[in-house]
Structures are given as C-alpha cells and as structure tokens.
Amino acid sequence: MERNIPLTVEFTGGLEMLFSNQRVHKISIPARDDRKEPSNVGFLIKHLCDNLMKDPRKEMFVIDDSIRPGVLVLINDADWELEGEDRYELQPNDNIVFVSTLHGG
Amino acid sequence: MPAAEPDETLEAQKARLEEQIRAKERQLQTLKANLLNLDQGIRNGSHAADEYKRYGRQLIMPTMGLQGQLRLKQAKVLVVGVGGLGCPAATYLAGAGVGTLGLMDGDVVELSNLHRQIAHSTDRVGMSKADSAYKSLRALLSYQCLSRLNPLVEYNLHKFHVSPENALAIFNSYDLILDCTDHPTSRYLISDACVLTGKTLVSASALKTEGQLIVLNDPPRPPGDLSGGPCYRCIFPKPPPAESVLSCGEGGILGPVVGTMGVLQALEAIKLLSRPRAEATPESMGNGTSDEPPKASMLMFSAYNNPQFRTARLRSRRSNCAVCSSTPSITKASLDSGSLDYVAFCGVAIPVNILPHSLRLSPTEFAILPNAARGTLIDVRDETQFAICAVPESVNVPWTGNAASWLAHAEEAGVLDDEDSACKYIVCRFGNDSQLAAKAIIDRSGGTTEKVKDIKGGFQSWREEVDPQWPDY
Ligand SMILES: [Zn+2]
Across the interface, which of A14, A56, A79 has its CB nearest the CB of B314? Predict the structure, then answer.
C-alpha cells in the first residue's frame, strides 16, 4: 500500500522566490520513481523542478542536473552529505530544506 | 566523608584520592589566576579593582568565572569587515573585555550604512570604517584614570581590505578571526587563511530578513589532520554562480537581522575564547564526540518565520578539500605568491550590454524629448521600489528574470498593444534588467522593431543626470 510519500519541503535564503514565494510546501510524491526504484532525493529534486517550480529560472536551483553550488540540502536538519546525498531514500514525513547561502554583511 | 572506610575497595580509594587531587588542582588554578590578576593590577594601577566591578555581571557566571575573564583579556580577536555584522560583534567583544581587538576594513562610512552599522554615525560619513568604529568603542569603553583616557581594549586598525597578500601576516597575530564581510571572494580567502594560520573562524552572513552563522576550523588543526573542524571549502567546495549572489545594496537588509547575527558572532567568540584550553573541542556549537571527526553546524535565523531559529548539522572535514586536506592545492606559498585569484574563482556578474547603440538612450536624451514623443515608459523595477518613487504615468511591469514570463505580464498590463505606433522606453534601477526587457520585446517582433529603447544606467543615472531629487535608496 505504498503509493505516495508525504513530505515537507522548505526553501530558504531566497530560494522561496523560485517557488511562488512560499517557504513551506506540504507535498507528496510517488513512492517509486520511473524505474520502480524507491524514490530518493535526486528524484524529489527532479519532481520539484517539473511540478512545483513555476519560475523559469531553473539555473538558480539546478545546474547540469545537480543542485547549484551555494545551496545546501538538509534532510531532517542534517546536511545531505551525511545522509547519502541524492541517493537518500525518502521516508514518510521527512523534512527536506533547500538553503541558499547568504553573503551579505 | 570519613578519611577511609573500613570496607572501601582499592578502586574506591583510588577514585577518592583522584578527586581530591583534582580539587586541589582547581584550587591551585584559582590561586594562580588571582596572582596573575594581582600582577596585572600592580602594573595597571587601579585598573584591576575597576575591572571586577565592570565585568562583575559576567564574571559571576560559572561559564565565565575569573579564569574565563582572564582568558578573554589575553585574547586577540580580528574582526574582518566593520559593517552590519562587524559593528555589533566588535562592540560586544570590546564590552566583554577582549584584550586586543583588530578592526579591518578598507571602506569608508556611507549614509546608507547607518541604519544597521551602529558603530558609525552621521558626522563620520566619509571616514574610514576602522577609524570610525575605533572612535565609538573608545568613547564607550575607556575610563578616566590619572586625568587620562585609558583604553581597556587595545585596538589595531587595519584600514584596507583583506587580500591574499596581507591575510597570513595579519591573521598570525590573532587568536580568533570573525568573518564579517559581505562577498564570497572574501569568505573563501578568510577561511583559507584561517586554515593556513591555524585559527578558528566565526563566520556569519545576512540578507533581507535572514542570517546564517557557522563556526569553522574548530578545533584548528593543520591541513590533513581530520581531527580538525571543517573549513568553508569543506562545506562549499564550489562558489555560487556570480549571478546568484545578492548584496545588501541590491537585496536589502533589516538592521536588527544583521545585528542579531553580529551579536551571535560575538557570543560564539566569547564562548570559544573563555573556555578552558583542555576542553578545546567543538562544544561551542558542534556536536562531535571524541571518537569521530568534528562536524560543523549552521545556525539559521529567519525573522519572519516561526520558529525563527534552527540549527543544521553539517559535515566534517572533506578528505579532498582544496585547503585543509592532506593534498591541498592552496598553501601558504600559493597565497603569498599572489597566484590565487579569488575574484576569478568566484566569478563576476557581467553588466548587461546586449542592445545596439541605436536602441539605447541616456536619461538626458529621454528628458529633453517633447512630451508627445515620450510614448510609454515601462518601469521594470519590483513593486516595492516602484512604490517608493516612480515617474508619473510610467507603467510598472517588474522584470521576472525571463523573457517569456515577462512578456506575458507586459501583455496583461496592456503595454504591448500599440506595437507599431508609440515608442516604448524601458527603465530599471541600474540599467541591466531594462535591456533584457527591451530585448524581449524586440525579439518578439522578430527583431524588426526600432520603437523600443532602453534608458542607459537606469534611475541611478537618471538621478545623476536629470533629477538630483530622485531618491537615492
Ligand atoms: Zn576544508
């Protein structure tokens, strides 16, 4: 009975501008990707680009199919590098945050 | 507790003896500290007695104590960038009794700084920021003794920007560095120099209503030593594209937001400097245990979000980091030789220049057009800026970052209706977006229309050439 995974996705540090100026999005994505593999964060990012992102400036979020430099991806408040990066398999109610680094001072 | 209980095991006796020794050692430390303080008191006249009173409120906390206060007094801290972050950070560090404070900034005070850069003032517009902050801090924290103003803090003023040529020599004479600058180029440089000189770095940034804070290279260990904390490059190996970097001048900033981040930097610095040397582990913000390599963490502040604060656990040192790994490409030698170009590394957002000369008009040329020839003036700044000031009868169609979506908005606003009749003039804040919008209309017409023109240099030039009363925000 695994059809969809409910997730909380957040955008901050200016990235929310690319997602209808909305910081928190409650979404649900298919539990399996196109190749019937369990959905991972890589699949989520593609899903966000295709479905959630209305702004045409894709390159502010993704460059060459990966997250652009200067954006941290947090999986339940941990850097995704601690969790297997884009290969992390999503669990119900995971909190995924995309943070653009700030430089002003 | 009795001296020795009859059925006490040897282990228990040993533990008790060890605890007694530790207690004596603590006592000895306190005595030594008192001695040191008296020595200083003798050297500085009435200074010491004054300091008990001045620092009393923080002195009586167990996390500080006399030991912590004396460590602060012996500490040398460099604040790189004396702006929105550096002003509050330096003020609280000076107030807390840090012994030596370096103030490094090559900029001068501007009017647009004053809403947030609280160590500067209106009468010091045009003065070096290092000088200006020094004047404020000295006035705030010096005391009158023997009819002479004695500074409690020793200040070093570095009235220039941090550069690959000067960073190592200057950082070497400090214990802790605060990155209070405002651009990726300086952030990478400062982090590299901290790794190469073995200094911990407290780095903060802010924009609009948000701020971020990371303590890096904590503990500071030589390149290749994985028991050291990660550096800026471990977390961000590649710089962000130059087009994605917004300055406070472009994006805006709330004073208390950047102030909060600067105060938090001072707080982290005080925690790092006052902690006993023995427990020099990343306990200030991180959560590393002794067995695994220390990880950094990032504190994120978002003024309009609930909750306002959250902390993210970040990674440990990167085994192939360009500066802190065992195979670094960035070394003292490469920094000293000036062969590292941080500006090229981070890239530069190139000013837009996409229209032929014939389709661009200076503000003066626009201003002398007869009213009938002015056609439609399309202002592509965002709504907030348009509401601050606008040319009468201009139409606001904010640039969306993309031709197709902007054209859709422009059509909705009705400014594209009279395609061939009236001329359209496009204006923005600096003269970049206006060219992109003009080009969008030209391309839509198949590249044929000559009736779309961009106003060169935007409202910035407009104010310089035509209307000095135009708000200089
Ligand atoms: Zn590193």
Answer: A79
